[in-house]
């Protein structure tokens, strides 16, 4: 249900009937119940152009509005605002339609596009740490949402698998004469030991670089060892993704090595377009208003991240045919992507109709406002953080004796992982945020546990009612009216969240919906004996639609619901 677009259409028709064709469409959600459900302020924008008082224009619009459909009442407020109230009968009908639709009335885009969402990007030969959390869950949420809305989404996990560190690992492995079949925790220590040798021993460093050349030239022995390191690393990533409930698989990996053969072609293409300049032996692209050039090839012939990113953009535009490419990478990479996007557009590696975006995000901080670290100052392993979340979630389970051990484990995982994800997604992604266990595992406030509790409470109502729910929705008071309007705003919120890549708009909506339902539940009795049968069924239907909306919204965020808490 695109509520705002339907209102805009009604306003547009009123303008046309009034003989006004140039219409500033600016219907917005009302901030207070006294202001109606929506507010239109376009009359003010037109006042100078038409040479009329805004209230006079607003009066013209109201006189031509159709009050037989979506709009029940309209009033002029202030200098020319039009406050709009939606028709309760229309609201009830639309809620009924949404309830009977498996998509809750959310339409599939009429013109879906193909989208690449590039996210997670773990380091190979190291365990994933908390620094990978935000990219992973923000990217997965965006991919889930765009898929739900009908776009063809290609998830891509761009990993660094092609560099000096792998020559270093192979050189150290042969020096130690050890088997590469080690688990990742050993591999991480293995990496640290190899790095120590690399930094301290020039001959070892030279041998490592020789192995890099062998890998890149296709040496079978080195490639086999390289592949083992990659497989061990990806195996750990898959364990984290499974625990985190993230939809990334081995098939979604598009590593640096995937684009390796295309890198000389990128440099050649830039040169043929006259875009390259030599600087200190390196091949560079100089952009206007940027003192620092984009280096695409070093003096020794090596390539850089920018070269690989340009090859990826070219591949995604020309081969995959995508129209939107979203890089979910922390905000510190903003300048890098800004420059790469400019070069890609200027070189026609991507067509003008391809939307390129860097979805930047801030850092996770501890209570003191510093980057999140372990007590000894080390980087927190993501798997350890998730395990701790599950452990702490067990402490929130009420009446724990009512559950089997398996049920406790499943419930704790749902609550704990949901809490970590929601706490992150509920923040404006561009901001840093404070990681706080007490806040994220609270039954009060904007938390996943609060939403899971609201959902579970609705399920408890249905268990107590224990009968089929047959009957139509009727809107009998202001609170029911507000709840119905909120439920029908779901698609508008999803569209806005998708277009702006801002998951916190969806979490804010779900929290406001759950809060409004709790108020509705307290003030509008459902199962009391003195409640009229028709009203009881209607309120059960509204409760059902609320539960389904919360469940669908959380599902897009990658969070599960629970039937009992």
Structure description:
Strand 5, helix 5 (133-149) and strand 6 (152-156) form a beta-alpha-beta unit. The protein has helices at residues 3-17, 42-50, 54-64, 88-99, 133-149, 164-176, 184-200, 202-216, 220-244, 263-272, 305-318, 334-346, 382-394, 405-425, 437-440, 448-465, 478-488, 490-500, 503-523, 533-556, and strands at 27-29, 38-40, 71-77, 81-86, 114-118, 152-156, 277-279, 282-285, 294-297, 324-327, 355-358, 364-365, 433-434. Helix 18 (490-500) runs antiparallel to helix 19. The protein is of the alpha/beta class. It contains 20 helices and 13 strands.
> Gyration radius, to the nearest Å?
28 Å
Terminal residue distance: 31 Å
Level of helix content? 40-55%
Number of strands: 13
**How large is the count of helical segments?**
20
Q: Classify the beta-strand content into a percent band.
A: 5-15%
Structural category: alpha/beta
The chain-level mean pLDDT equals 92
| Rough outline | globular
- Spatial sequence of strands, sheet with the most strands: 1-2-4-3
Secondary-structure blueprint:
Blueprint: H1 3-17, E1 27-29, E2 38-40, H2 42-50, H3 54-64, E3 71-77, E4 81-86, H4 88-99, E5 114-118, H5 133-149, E6 152-156, H6 164-176, H7 184-200, H8 202-216, H9 220-244, H10 263-272, E7 277-279, E8 282-285, E9 294-297, H11 305-318, E10 324-327, H12 334-346, E11 355-358, E12 364-365, H13 382-394, H14 405-425, E13 433-434, H15 437-440, H16 448-465, H17 478-488, H18 490-500, H19 503-523, H20 533-556
Parallel strand pairs: 5-6, 5-10, 10-11, 12-13
Antiparallel strand pairs: 1-2, 2-4, 3-4, 7-8, 8-9
Helix pairs in contact: 1-3, 2-3, 4-17, 4-20, 5-18, 6-7, 6-8, 7-8, 11-12, 13-14, 16-19, 16-20, 17-19, 17-20, 18-19, 19-20
